[in-house]
Amino acid sequence: MKGGRVSCIGRFFCCTLMIAVFLIVSIVLALALWIRPPSIIIGSAGLTSAGTSGIQFQTSGIVVPLEVNISVNNPDYFSVDLKQVTLDLTYPLDGNNTAIGNGSTSDITFHSHSNTTFTFPFEINYQFSTDPNYAILLDMASKCGILGGSQSDITIDYSIKVDLKVILIPVSPTISNSFSISCPFDESELEDFIKSLGLSSIAGLL
Predict the structure, then answer these.
(1) CB atoms within 10 A of CB 158
(2) Worst-scoring range by mean pLDDT, 17-21, 111-115, 139-143, 199-203?
(3) Please, which residues have CB within 8 angstroms of residue 152's CB and are 6 or more apart in sequence?
(4) CA distance 76 to 116
(5) Which phi and psi angles does 125 have, rounded to 5°?
(6) In this predicted structure, what is the pLDDT of residue 20?
(7) 94: β partners
(8) Per-residue DSSP letter, 87
(9) Where is the Late embryogenesis abundant protein LEA-2 subgroup domain positioned along the sequence (predicted)?
């Protein structure tokens, strides 16, 4: 009699556990079927409101503050928390990719059924220590048209790591691509800076 009771309790517990697992799996699958990817619109990167006056020509390099507006439309019935996003920039030249800047932002919530627009700040931080031959500086000068040619866009590679939390589940994708910007410098200021470094003969600015 006792053995039959224990067996009955065991079957009941097993059945209850299986039902609970089934319900959890069903809920997760239902959520997955209803989840729709957000619509993301990324604007064009450009100088901050300070314009060219915000650019810093330093003895160690050049710092260019930039920003880009990003609009995210969340069509789902739950909010998504952006814990942090970090950006690393590299300059592609002659088969090499040299670190040239970064940016980050954090703590943004994309509420359900809403559109959220935020400004992502980042900067080009060009340092002579990573480019002792000034190859990147002269390449940017060339694309800005101060070495005799016509202007063209400056292409920069980037890697973005995004830390999200979706329904209490952490998600951390990494995205790599490139973007192009028009020359951010005042041509005369960049030309004077190159001359101050003693690069006039190399740059053909004599």
Answers:
(1) 19
(2) 17-21
(3) 143
(4) 13
(5) -125, 85
(6) 57
(7) none
(8) E
(9) 70-169
9 and 101 inside one domain: no
Radius of gyration of the chain (CA): 27
Query: Which CATH number do you get for residue 83?
Result: 2.60.40.10
pLDDT tens for 123-135 read 999 999 999 999 9
- Per-residue pLDDT averaged across 113-121, rounded? 91
Whether 42 and 33 have beta carbons less than 8 Å apart is answered as no
CA angle 126, 128, 132 (to 5 degrees): 130
196 and 120 within one domain:
yes
30 plus 60 within the same structural domain: no
pLDDT digits (tens, 9 = 90+) for 56-115: 999 999 999 999 898 888 887 778 888 898 999 999 998 899 999 999 999 988 888 889
Among residues 14, 32, 35, which one has the least CA distance to residue 24?
32
161 and 84 within one domain: yes
